[in-house]
Amino acid sequence: MSMRTAPPMASDELMEDVRRLALIRTHRLAPWMLDGRRLTVPQADAVLAQLWHSPPREDVPVDDSRPAPSVPRERGGEEEVARAMEATRRNPRPMDFFAMISDGKYATPTGHERNDLDFWLVKTRKNGKYEGRRFVDRIIGGHDDVPLDNVHGRLAMEAILAYGAEESQVLYSQEIGTCRFCQRSLTRRVPRYNGQGNDCAADRGLTQEIPPDDWRPEIQDEA
């Protein structure tokens, strides 16, 4: 039986690319790339691709005196990014990697025609043998939540991370109609579009954006 070869660790140059891009991008992963952690090459390429396609921070000036960080396609094309993402799907990262994903309910695109979205419950065990350990349940409407094993739980976390943790929470709230913070029902169009009630948004200094006219026209405020 052949043993699986561990992916190589990212070079100092590659990790410097990740850190430099993390300083000037708004992606949820950015703060976690500034604490000196070391990634494997597939992980670094996947993170670099996500950072590269996220909006720039407006409060950080761009340093034109240094060359721009290389992106995965420059080191091997779109195929390299695809290989990195496929490697992640085959061997998801350990649960500790997903510390930036808080406990709560999430939705992610499933990629299957039959079901448009997958729904997840991320939770931390509060007591007992596995106190402090994190677990993921699949939420199925009309049925009890289904606990996932370690590998499938990490795959769910990968899906949340790929779509964006906040975006996944908002998507869940839009679909189910509950606030992502307090879980109360959202009965009006603007709070549901933002995935948060007005009080919870105000308490956290968040704005409520007006939804586009073509967003979920079936969801309208009662007259």
Order of helices and strands: HHHEEEEHHHH
Unreliable residue stretches: 70-77
Biggest sheet statistics: 4 strands, antiparallel
Quote the beta fraction: 5-15%
Mean pLDDT: 79
How would you describe the shape?
globular
CA radius of gyration is: 19 Å
The proportion of residues forming helix, as a percent range, comes to 25-40%
Tell me the number of strands: 4
Which structural category fits the helices and strands?
alpha+beta
* Tally of alpha and pi helices: 7
Distance between the termini: 68 Å
| Order of strands across the main sheet | 1-2-3-4
The overall number of domains is 3
Describe the model:
Mean pLDDT is 79; it is low at 70-77. With 223 residues, this protein is an alpha+beta fold. It is 34% helix and 9% strand. The longest helix has 14 residues, at 150-163. It is built from 7 helices and 4 strands; from the N terminus they run αααββββαααα. It has helices at 12-24, 41-52, 78-90, 150-163, 165-176, 189-194, 198-203; strands at 104-109, 117-124, 134-138, 146-147. The protein starts with 11 loop residues before the first helix and ends in a 20-residue tail after the last helix.
